[in-house]
Predict the 3D structure of the following.
Amino acid sequence: MRPEYLGQVLGIEQASFKNPWPPAAFAAEIQHPWSWFRVIGPAKKTDGISRVDGFIICWVILSDMHVLNLAVLPECRRKSLGSALLQDSLADFSRQGGGYVSLEVRPSNLAAQELYRAFGFEVVGRRKQYYRSDNEDALIMALEVEEEQMRGRKDTGN
Ligand SMILES: CC(C)(COP(=O)(O)OP(=O)(O)OC[C@H]1O[C@@H](n2cnc3c(N)ncnc32)[C@H](O)[C@@H]1OP(=O)(O)O)[C@@H](O)C(=O)NCCC(=O)NCCS
């Protein structure tokens, strides 16, 4: 993530969620040392990407990782970009020792749940009326990642 991508990240956020995070929240995530804020898009010949197609934000504190936000441009969905963003973060978390990964997802968000299940996440709990905009509950999904566990998948190109 770079500050110059912020506008495009905000556009994806607004196209993806009923109650998008405000710009200041994203600006703060660029600063936090515990925040892994990553984007995906076509590589430029020189450096960086020419367009932001998706992003992920995770907090990593010792052996705990929390996925705070993940979104892909509507027109770029079902092309494995969401999977690539999650895979990349999980692989790095695994390389630095692994641990417990958790996230909240709406029960109505079946697409995201399918994605997380494909990585081995399971529902471990429920937060009642977690989403303040409409009082929908949140499912808590979690995954235990072992040290270097992800290396095999990455090495085989999957
Ligand atoms: C959830 C989201 C990030 C997935 O991104 P994506 O790039 O489309 O996901 P992928 O292409 O990597 O999909 C991986 C797998 O997830 C599942 N999946 C993804 N979208 C799905 C959908 N609409 N319906 C059912 N399953 C879906 C499928 O199993 C898919 O594998 P397949 O395409 O081989 O069948 C994207 O739909 C999005 O941005 N949604 C709005 C924001 C959001 O809900 N974020 C998650 C908050 S918890």
